[in-house]
Specification:
This protein has 236 residues and is an alpha/beta fold. It contains eleven helices and ten strands.
Length: 236
């Protein structure tokens, strides 16, 4: 579904991504793990069109999106839940969710109420707070809202950037359970996560990034047992 090939990304003179390549098959959960500054978020923003690769290519569902504008990428079926949630803080929960469906028209728009109920079923707390201003929600509730907002665009693939950041262990488990259910319902997922143990426990495959390079890749279960990964990222 997604094929990233030899992309190089710069912030001015800083060479952030140094020729990384990876792929995601339809129906998979694939994780990018690594320390701060490894290039995980830069990879996500480049895929979603917020950053431009200087060289290399990104192919989504058979077509290159390397030079495609972000809003067009969303229309193609690829939605991102950004690091830090980025909810519309002065709008209500329901207004945030409706904003997630802004690309929909015609028959798709007619199903919006049904999709709202789907999100509310998945996140009952959002239904309880649907008229509450999003900026007053807890961190965990804002993360649920950010995921729900992305799901309202009916994506074929979901990019999740650090969904566990700043959350309590109980909420982290709840968010990861939701990610698993979203995947089971047919959405392919690319996950960036510093909680490597949780990410690898959830994923089918994973790539380990260090300073803009992919240094390891393989089935997530194998990487969980890899001595190098255990020492560097799992505290073992």
């Amino acid at each position: 579904m997604l094929n990233v090939t030899d992309i190089h990304v710069y912030y001015g003179a800083i060479h952030a991504l140094k020729g990384i390549s990876f792929h995601v098959e339809e129906g998979e959960i694939v994780s990018l793990i690594g320390a701060n500054g490894a290039g995980k978020t830069t990879s996500m923003q480049t895929i979603s069109g917020l950053l431009r690769a200087r060289t290399g290519d990104i192919v989504f569902r058979g077509g290159s999106i390397a030079k495609t504008e972000p809003h067009k990428i969303v229309r193609m079926g690829l939605a991102q839940v950004p690091e830090g949630r980025r909810v519309f803080s002065t709008m209500t929960v329901q207004e945030n969710l409706e904003m997630g469906a802004y690309i929909r028209s015609g028959k798709q728009a007619a199903g919006m109420g049904e999709d709202l109920e789907m999100v509310y079923t998945r996140f009952p707390r959002l239904k309880e707070r649907r008229r509450q201003v999003a900026g007053t929600l807890s961190g965990g509730e804002q993360q649920m809202l950010a995921i729900g907002r992305a799901l309202m665009s009916r994506p074929a693939m979901l990019l999740l950037d650090e969904p566990s950041m700043g959350l309590s262990p109980i909420l982290v488990q709840e968010i990861f359970d939701c990610i698993r259910e979203v995947n089971k319902s047919g959405t392919t997922i690319l996950l960036v996560e510093q909680n490597a143990k949780m990410a690898l426990s959830l994923s089918h495959r994973a790539y380990v990034l260090e300073t803009g390079h992919v240094v390891l890749e393989g089935p997530a279960a194998e990487l969980l047992e890899n001595d190098q990964v255990r020492t560097a990222y799992l505290g073992a």
